[in-house]
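Allow me, if you will, to draw on your knowledge of protein folds for a short while. I have a record of one protein: its chain in single-letter code and its fold written as discrete structure tokens. Kindly check, if you would, that the fold set down in the tokens agrees with what the sequence suggests. Thank you for your consideration; the sequence and its tokens are set out here:
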Amino acid sequence: MKKKLISMLLVVCLLISVCALFACNGDEETPSTPTPTLDTFVSLDINPSIEMTVDSDNKVVSVYGANDDGKVLLYEETGIVGEDLEVAVEKIISLAVQMGYLDEENHVVSTNVVSTNNDIVSELNAKVNAKITGTASGLGLNVTTDAEGAFTTLCEIEELIAKFPNNQAIQNMTISKFKLAMSATENGAIDIETAIAMNDAALIESVKSAHAEIENYATEEYKRAEEEANIVYQRAVEFAKDMVYVEFFSEKFISNPFANASSVYFGSLYCLYTLPAKGFELMAKASQCVKDYKDETLSEDAVQRVMNALGMEESEIDSLKNEEGNITINSVEKYVNVYFKNSPVGVELEEIKTEVKQVLSDVKGEVKEAVSVFQEKYKEEVEAVIEIAESYVTMVEGYISALPESIKTEINRYVTDFNDIIVGVKTAIDDGLTIEELNGYAESLKLKASTIREDMLAKLTDADKSEIAARQEQAVAELTKDRQEFEQSIESAKQSAKNKIADIKARRLQPAQ
């Protein structure tokens, strides 16, 4: 589908010598602050990580698996939402024991409670902890609880504090506030800095919204697949709309070249910058969706360094593997979270934590650097976008001589600037183009296009705008096949995620059968 978009882009540029693209970027909506209600946020970190929101009657309003194991535990389970909090906790702990998440080696559950009514936090936390230990005891397992964050959570907090040294809200945040804020950012509506600055009532409302929008089968792999399908389809929509502008301005110029030369000039420049910008942006986003760096399989050297830091024997290597049998940053972090919270506190443990933290930091840096280089599978497509852009520059230069001197000088300046950007992209490809660099080039092109857009808008009458809007609506309506492919991609990713979760859950429940 991505190649289809590249082909469409090529058609756009080769069919015309004079064109314009007009794109109205609506203002992004700023998340409104929800009306505060009496609600509570409860998190249980076993691993799995489970989050719930609870109303003033202690009834569970929403439940969410905050990591992939949490999604496995909750998959197709009932008897949690709508139940009393203690009933829900009992169900979750029973499942965790039954599925082997809670056992003799992993017997600590970290709990955090945040409420709009601070007077009930201690009481509610005590009830949650009592239900956890009581339920586990009834199943023959001695479990303890604490309010400490997981090792990786504490590392994330340290990194956030270092990143925002002048943000007092972040500098003073508690573990509970951090977990609540992170949960509120899950659906991408707000960022972590904004979330930390919000009051607890507004955050809990945002968490409920996030829980409602994200299905419990939505693993990280599924979310990446969904995002990639969305990107491809949305670009198809944008290119269809762009084709309308191509047709409109071409017709306008052909009907009266002299009267419409000015508007064509602005449109041509806008097209010059916008087409490759959209192409680069698509490739960068699609590449980012391929795989998160935390899911990359670690090298033997990286694995050995992790094992040395943890004092592990070679025979223990399977403990670091994920469900697919690979060792990744995610699987290592899962292991160390369980290992540290279940180990006796002492000087030796703190020394191990320090060493593991450094090793993980080094390994993350190495993996990030390796995967940040633009995916080889997209290199050919980036080069195709560059080739198209250069062809368009040649066409633009071909009709410069027919323009007035004042316009000719300005368009030459833009063309020179554009060529400099394209040369930069080509050089970066040879050196190892990164996703960040490609996004940077796309932003540079978009910024230039935005300075031209206002002039182009002034050349359109209300009648022009109405006609263009009608044509665009029809063009998008004709994307039936693209829409079907998009929906099929989403459905395929959804089914794949469900099958994977169901398979993991079945395997975990197998010993109990």
Summary: Residues 1 and 485 are 8 Å apart (CA to CA).
